[in-house]
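Can't paste images in this forum, so I'm doing it all in text. The chain is below; anyone willing to post the predicted structure tokens underneath?
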Amino acid sequence: MDVYFDSGAPVKLYVKEHYSEEVTTLASAEELSHKHTKYILCRALDILHVSSALCFSCSRFVTGDKRQAKLANETKLDVHLLGDEC
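Text version of the structure:
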């Protein structure tokens, strides 16, 4: 699709037709938020990162954030917490 801005220069705009991964990730994030935020005190991006890992069936979740690691552990992801190697 071509779009023209005030300068008159044409710009290509690509529109994604299917949003299944995004919708699944957001639905998963909403569920995680309702289930765990109150107890773990997760932030929005922590929840989105964990939700994305679940939706894409990641085999391992690596993070340096303890709250994010706790949330990922609650979802049964294989978590590796950076800085916790000692």
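The chain is about 50% helix and 15% strand. The first strand starts at residue 2 and ends at 4.
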